[in-house]
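Issue 218. Parser rejects a valid record. Input:
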Amino acid sequence: MCGIAGVIDKKRATDSRRRERVVRNMLRLMKHRGFDAHGIKSTDNVSIGHTRLSILDLSRRGDQPFSDENLNSALSFNGELYNHDRLRKKYLDDIRINSNSDTATLFELLKKFPIESVLKKIHGMFAFSFLNNKSSNLVLAIDRFSIKPLYYVNTPEYFAWASEIKAFSALPKHKFQLNKKVIGEYLIFRHVSGPETLFKNIHKLQAGEYLTYNLVNKTIKVKKYYKLQKSRCHQDFLENILSSSVKAHLMGDIIAGVQLSGGVDSSLVALFAQKFSKKKLHTFSIGLNDKKWNEFHYSDFIANKLGTNHHKIIFSKKDFVRLLPRIIYHLDVPITHPNTVPMYILAKEARKCTKVLLTGEGADEVFCGYNRYFQKNEKDKGLIYSNAFSSPQDVAKIFKGHISVVNRKKIVRGLNGLKREDKMSFYDIYTYLPHVLLRQDKAGMAANIENRVPFLYTSVVEMGFNSKTKVGRFGGKTQIKELALKYLPKDLVLRRKCGFGLPISEWLRDKDGLLSHLSNLTKSKVIKEFFDVNAIKQLIEEHLVEEVDNSPILFTLISLSMWHDTFIN
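Output the parser choked on:
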């Protein structure tokens, strides 16, 4: 929905005008997150900024940051609170509120209740900063499953935060540096778990966390307010919970669309969305002009069955190569999934019709949809590397540094007593899902589109995680498939899961594809500094003669090199 940013001048070395100029430049670097309005509020040594994509209450009354008259409180909010109407009626009925936006609801709740009380009441996807001068605290918080990102940096001179890392380049004297200690983890998983990022001294809030910065003693405290747990109290039918979630995710003053892959998850989302929509939905699917690399047959069928305004988008190898550097810039991190590029192309096309897209993301992690859930990983080590893109052995052959997976080990140690599929689901939700959601947020917002994920509504996740039938007669996602069979044909629901793949292996050998990036790989500064160049040359040679498919690790290295050239070099 938006972008948020802010700065605290710890040494009070600048006036509000200069500080606001910094925040304005931070917002400028994130302007793609919201063209509809922007604003900055300052008090004492703090400046808070916001750039808006208006979806709920399209009037100026919804512009941010929100603040009271004497600036005792100020809020900059990114996301959606799907239960804000109920909360307003229950807790704020005696307060006159000028805006019908969820931001206005959150602002009044934060003024009335302690932060943890509010965080336990609200449901949705969000990242926000709330300044409370009465308690001398600034609070940063994100939602329960890290659907919306939020980063922060803390130096002797300033504390700053933003929805995107690139915004920190507007800070005085700030220089991006590579976080060397996490390179090994990135190479294996294409993502850094926990609070660390690939940038030195830049941290991210994790799922279900909030941070408190005390303006007086300049201390930071990070606390978890939500963690997924096993429970026996979630016995409701999936259809009731999922359909309610989809209905809630249609909230807004515009007509939403659906990212329709043709798979069972997005098909169910589209089905319920059209059921509750007052008008014909727009649905969007994308693929290469090659039956091996698209699922148009299935997405066309669903769109025709539901009667949606369907948009079928074809992209090319040329489009992928051209857009790859731009997408890495927008992600702030190297590309994890190559399909992030077509996801951006789809969002650009969808933006012509809507500002909001619903997706089926999250269902695989919550309801055990990946093939790895059915491979034997009884030992902790097998679980730790279950969602890896490259093996630690292959990485060790080329990487000259130390490989650390401390945060991942810590998560796994806390899973004793759970069944294997529950362990893997929990592990994926807190290590794999965050970077899947990151690409949804950043690729969408790069096109000025908000992606929403009904499968990650709290009630759906808790019901799925605690379900005894998510793995059953249809393998993984049995509960989802049983629901889908009520409405969709058997050959669509029970077909083999294929995902949204791309012929990266072929394109790495293609002079019109990624071959030039492969050829330049060993000349890269970051590759020469941290890797065995001769070992990488051997990987390239093996791949080019089709002796071994080394595309997983080679694409990881190309993405790292391009990211390093963009942000560090």
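Fixed in the parser; the record now loads. Residues 551-567 form the longest helix (17 residues).
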